[in-house]
Each structure stands twice: as structure tokens, then as C-alpha cells.
Amino acid sequence: MKSKTLLFFLGLLLFFFSCKKKERVVDNPVQGEITISTDESFKSVAEALTDRYMALYPNTKINLEIKKEDLGYLDLLDNKVRVVVMSRELSQKEKDAYKSKIDMDMVPARFAADAVVFIVPKSSTRTSISLNEIKEELNSDNKRIVFDGTNSSNLNFVAQKLNTTPDKLKFSIINGNKNVVEQLNSHPDKIGVISLNTISRPYDKESEELRNSVKLLSVTEGNKTLEPTIANIRNMSYPFTRVLYFLTNEPYFGLGNGLIRFSCMQLGQIVVSKEGLQPYNIFERQVQMR
Prior knowledge:
Blueprint: H1 2-23, E1 32-38, H2 43-56, E2 60-66, H3 69-77, E3 83-86, H4 92-102, E4 109-121, E5 128-130, H5 131-137, E6 145-147, H6 153-161, E7 172-173, H7 177-183, E8 191-195, H8 205-212, E9 214-216, E10 218-221, E11 224-226, H9 230-234, E12 241-248, H10 255-264, H11 266-274, E13 278-279
Parallel strand pairs: 1-2, 1-3, 5-10, 6-7, 6-8
Antiparallel strand pairs: 3-12, 4-8, 4-9, 4-12, 4-13, 10-11
Helix pairs in contact: 10-11
């Protein structure tokens, strides 16, 4: 009797663990659900890539969380998101934290070249700004330069370019890239700082309206004055060119790595190009004439 009871409980236990194992579904590149984080500055290209990926693989769901770049990175370390879009160079302390918490080698997956751009109201007579002027303005109590928020990718990148930190700079804030563009004409003495991706979609009506409502400034560095054009971003001669890259905490080839691989390969690079940005991985076409 005791042996029958023991066998019954053993069978019940095996059934329980079998059911639990069946319930545990691990995602893969063609099915599953994950959350990724991106700064609002890169929302457009991140949205375009995730939408295209989900269209190709209908059994996938990629939730896009819009969060400041620094906070998105912290969420990656805490496994709250699977992938984060980054633009600036991480500090050694941040790299050490990744190694400690994720226990993986950091492998940035570069997929696009974007830029930080400086804008003024349409009525402004100004057409360019120099690096020295930018430094002077960011140390002035006038706070004429307007960023889209603290902890934003634009602020972090400009500070890094100037070899300083955001807490040492003086500036104004209008939350959100789009809001900076829309409200700048009400502040004729201000200079806005936004991501190129906010206004880069060539065939998007909203992007076109935003683009046409302000004036983009050229940036002078040394004896060169350069506009934030695709050609200048491609050869990285525009001083505030930046490379966007993915980081993941996914230790296997799942949905996160599937999205990353897609974004860095030809189909994803075509999406990047249609966003009005420079694809990081350029696919050359060779034509043989006979």
C-alpha cells in the first residue's frame, strides 16, 4: 500500500514539473514578446525597425519603451528590458557594471549614424554656430541653448563632445525633441538642440512640417563649416555625428538578438536609410558589364 502511495506522489510530482516546463516558453527570433528601450531622440528609427520586424514575423511582439538614455541603460542592467539603443560612449564604470551584472562581454551592435543638430527660429538671421560659441553659451547664465531634458541623449552627447559633464553646463529645457521644435519660434533668442532623427524622415508629413518650421545651423570647427547632411554624416566630418548602437542582456539567440541582427543586415539598413539616416553597414552593389 505504501509503495502504491509513493508511486502516486512521484507520478503527481513528475506531472507537475512537466506542466511547469511546458508553461515556460523561451522566445526565439521568430516568436515571443520582449521590451526594448530607446531615448525619445531615436524613437522614429527604433519604431520603424521594430514595426518592420514584427511585420516580417507576425508571432513576435516588441514593446518599445521611450525612456531617457541613461535610465534605459539602468533598466538593461536590471533586466527590465532586453535591448537598449545607445549613442554615447559609456564610461569605464558603466562598462564594469555591465560586466558585473550581466556577466557577458559587451558587444555594441552599430546600425545607424545620426547627429545632434542645432536649430533656430525661422526668422533668425543666424545660419551657423561655432564650437567655441556653443561652449561659451553653455557656460553663460543666459541659458540660450535649449535641450529636450536632463539625462537626454542629446545633452549627454554634447557634454561628451565638449569633454565635460552635463552638471557643469548651463542650459534651458523644453521636454521632448518635438516640443523644442514647435515652441522655439516663441523664443527668438534661443538655440534648440535636437536629434536629426526627429526631423529626418524624408517622406513623412509630420517630419516635413517640423523641418520646415525651423532653420538648421551649420557648425564651425576650426576653419571648416559643415551642415548636418547625410554626406557629412557618412564621413563623420559633421562635428556632432554620432553612431547609434544596440546593447542587449540576452545570453542566447532570442528575439532581442534577432532584432539586432535584422537591423544590422541589409533589410534593416534599408529601413535606416528610409528614415533619412546613414546606415552604418553600407552594402555596395557590384555590377558587371559585358
